[in-house]
Amino acid sequence: HVLSVFILVSCRCSEKEKNPLYWNSAAQHTLQNALSLQELNKNIAKNLILFLGDGMGISTVTAARILKGQLSGHSGEETQLEMDKFPYVALAKTYNTNAQVADSAGTATAYLCGVKANEGTVGVSAAAIRGQCNTTYGNEVTSILKWAKDAGKSVGIVTTTRVNHATPSAAYAHCVNREWLSDAEMPLEALQEGCKDIALQLFENIPNIDVIMGGGRKYMFPSNMSDVEYPGEHKHMGTRRDGRNLVEEWKDRFKNHVTYYVWNRKDLLAINPNNVDSMLGLFEPGDFPYDLERNVETDPSLTEMVETAIKILRKNPQGFYLLVEGGRIDHGHHEGKAKQALHETVELDRAIGRAGLLTSIHDTLTVVTADHSHVFNFGGYTPRGNPIFGLAPMLSDVDQKPFTSILYGNGPGYKIVNGVRENVSAVDYKQNNYQAQSAVPLRLETHGGEDVAIFSKGPMAHLLHGVKEQNYIPHVMAYAACIGQNRLHCRSFSNRGPQFPASLAKAMLLC
Ligand SMILES: [Zn+2]
């Protein structure tokens, strides 16, 4: 067949890969590593970290792996992401209670609160109805961040989106509408019925979230208050109709405690985490820009935020819980901008690597997952080492035109020129904001419905295996740390002989 001949001729595998010894010894090495996992890590997890790639489906993980390799001059397919090095992988079923294809709010409730919920709602059970304030009461569900705080751990949230966006908000808020970011976004009726906006809940529900870093500054300030970074720009001004300044209120709250509010990268990098008890970093009025377009003067990278967060949180002898969101993978895909989405994923992976250097698998359970996938894919019988943003090696045998390997099932990249599919060789399909072609035109590309991966390492990571409901994740993490619903088994820890600090043992006996 013509196609297979092409693939054989164009094989770009290196010389070593032609030798069976290479593959045999690599596989034997992998086998030895797998055998070593027969001795399970049943330690008590002092620390818990959840890395959430918003919209990071499995096709995104694979494409980001190839991109990461190609960015350092390799063909890419053989590269290992940091998350690829985690010993355990499971699949999560992502559907919401009322949706086959999920959104980020209902899923966040699942992997943070342990309960599946309706789309568009955060921190409430499926008995609550989206947008109906009075269905909030009595249907609140709490998150693992709160369980950790209640157990005496330090807790933190780091994201590249607004800190009151869907993913982080399920960690602290109970809200029937993910869009109620401040009171300005809420209907009068909901305010009259006593519902609170998400920004307010960030500071009021859990008394002290030790580290909060991300965007979303404008939701914290009174309406028409000018933004510190973009003075006079109307769209960046404060939004709050209640006139409250939540940042000043936050600063005033802690009298005996070293707190820092920062809004730019320079100030973030200047602080000494050893001297900080609590930190609030709000680096943008809304979401961060994409990492490829980040202003390196004003905005920290996700990796820099994660490093600072861990250094602040780990000072607590009782450990910490940290939620890290790579939030703009999702936005890149919605816009059909695969290059933005994949660079966001590579940056999330870099943050995962940095966290690995700052923690130990002996006392830290780290989980990497996604809330849902996207209708993003790549294919087209590309040869080994084909640029991930490049073309498939043949023309369509229907319309006789080239096509990019990366394509979307739907989205804004649908392009018909003079009644026929656009010829991509006439456009710069390698630029940062190129929108890959899609089969169906939509202003925003949609989420995908297939399962997502759960990568895990550290104490009890082996409990994340097989195909599981997404709401199983915080149950495992809480079990591993002896917090939340699963404290009792820790009383018999002496039978298991876990290694943990004496301070933690004392805390366990008290709980
Ligand atoms: Zn989305």
From TrEMBL:
Cofactor comment text: Binds 1 Mg(2+) ion.
Membrane topology of this protein: Lipid-anchor; GPI-anchor
One GO location term (cellular component): plasma membrane
UniProt-listed PROSITE patterns: ALKALINE_PHOSPHATASE
Coiled coil regions in record: none
EC numbers, comma separated: 3.1.3.1
Homology family: Belongs to the alkaline phosphatase family.
Protein name as catalogued: Alkaline phosphatase
Organism in which the protein naturally occurs: Scleropages formosus (Asian bonytongue)
Gene: ALPL
